[in-house]
Amino acid sequence: MAVEDNCKLKFLELKRRTYRFIIFRIDGQQVVVEKLGNPQETYDDFTASLPADECRYAVFDFDFTTNENCQKSKIFFIAWSPDSSRVRMKMVYASSKDRFKRSLDGIQVELQATDPSEMSFDIVKSRAL
User: Fold this and answer.
1) Which of 75, 84, 95, 119 is the most buried (most CB within 10 A)?
2) CA distances from 45 to 27, 49, 92, 103 (A)
3) Is the distance from CB of 72 to CB of 63 less than 8 angstroms?
4) Distance between terminal CA atoms of the chain?
5) What's the rounded Cα separation, in Å, for the pair 69 and 93?
6) In tens digits, what is the pLDDT along the chain, a chain of 129 residues?
7) Strand partners, 35
8) pTM for this structure?
9) 3-state SS string over 53-120?
């Protein structure tokens, strides 16, 4: 599976806080950028951007405050594979995930979700701390 150069470029821009999130999809034999989230967008905006019945990869720049009251940020890689998506699609996304994730240098937390409840705000926050 090839990774479009634009994916890596946009990820570098996310690390510089140009974007809050990026959603990627597999198009033919390569991973491409599907949607870019502005820095003002929230986690709810991000989850609403994921299709209910198709797989996607996504990165999200999560800002949070630690128990010691320090502002921090972590970049999450989320493999979205809803139960309602086609079996073939799930297989393609699952088999390409590690290679794609390795091409994005700077991922700090990985999350696999098949249902919105598996990537709720509370779960993401607990994984960040």
Assistant:
1) 119
2) 23, 6, 26, 25
3) yes
4) 33
5) 38
6) 899 999 999 999 999 999 999 999 999 999 999 999 999 999 999 999 999 999 999 999 999 998 899 999 999 999 999 999 999 999 999 999 999 999 999 999 999 999 999 999 999 999 998
7) 23
8) 0.95
9) CCCEEEEEEEEEECCCCCEEEEEEEEEECCCCCCHHHHHHHHHHHHHHHHCCCCCCEEEEECCHHHHC
